[in-house]
Specification:
The protein is mainly β. It has helices at about 1-30, 190-195, 290, and strands at about 40-45, 50-55, 60-65, 85-90, 100, 100, 115-120, 125-130, 140-145, 150-160, 165-170, 175-180, 200-205, 210-220, 220-225, 235-240, 245-250, 255-260, 265-270, 280-285, 300-305, 315-320, 330-335, 340-345, 350-354. The chain has three helices and 25 strands.
Length: about 350
Amino acid sequence: MGRLVSVGLMGMALALLGERFLALRNRLKATGEVESVDLPNCHLIKGIEAGAEDIDILPNGLVFFSVGLKYPGLHSFAPDKPGGILMMDLKEEKPRALELRISRGFDLASFNPHGISTFIDDDDTVYLFVVNHPEFKNTVEIFKFQEEENSLLHLKTIKHELLPSVNNIIAIGPRHFYATNDHYFSDPFLKYLETYVNLHWANVVYYSPNEVKVVADGFDSANGINISPDKKYLYVADMLAHEIHVLEKHPNMNLTQIKVLQLDTLVDNVSIDPSSGDIWIGCHPNGQKLFVYDPNNPPSSEVLRVQNILSEKPLVTTVYANNGSVLQGSSVAAIHDGKLLIGTLYHRALYCEL
């Protein structure tokens, strides 16, 4: 009798593991393919060979790139080279991406930048917020951009127990931001287990010098985050759930979910067109290819544009799609004055004139 019970329990456990495995493949869209959608006036950006995971553009056309991300389970084309922040001026006739110098005292050797966000203060000071993973830990670095010197002055390193697995960030003040945790745990094994079991414990955190709190939770894998031009709504990409969440921001900085837009792809970083409020998303049609890298069958890229997201029927358009022959693993798409920049997790970056 005891053996029968043991065999029965083992069978149930195996069945559960099998079900979880199939569910994970569905969340990763492991069989996903993409039909090519080309743009006519595009070229690869020189100097970006190992990923531009996130991109942020200032109103004057200066572009910040977060490059060289190393992340457990992800491929890297430059595993021994630290990451950095590059800049490009879209006002130039032939813009080039150049690395910004960072002030002395900051640990450049372990710099591993992920999501980024800029904030312009009332005195026109530009702050750059960078999610950093030194030695695969989690910090948020705040820099002051010094345009005359083409450099970044490091101001502060932020660590907090409510920021265990930071992915992306949106700055709303010189020391204030919202950040996504793509996992509840910081330990790599527990992260894997959390993803496999599908706990939905990922969250969004509000940080200020006086208060740090969870303001939204229940996400499968909270990833990109951004804010509407009128500062009333936040948009959060739930990557493995294939969703964009619209959250209303309240005076106490808490968030209330008002809408969820379901998409048929893994959504990564979220950018906003400041003139129209349209949402631009770097996406992964097949997430499994990201984590099981095969140069003969590389991850594809996809860029979606969402118009009128607050309406009953938002318009979703595939602006760009590629099977990996040009661009592998698109993670962000940023728009400025008719120019589109597409970054990737660990590959190249694309510049397009629309």
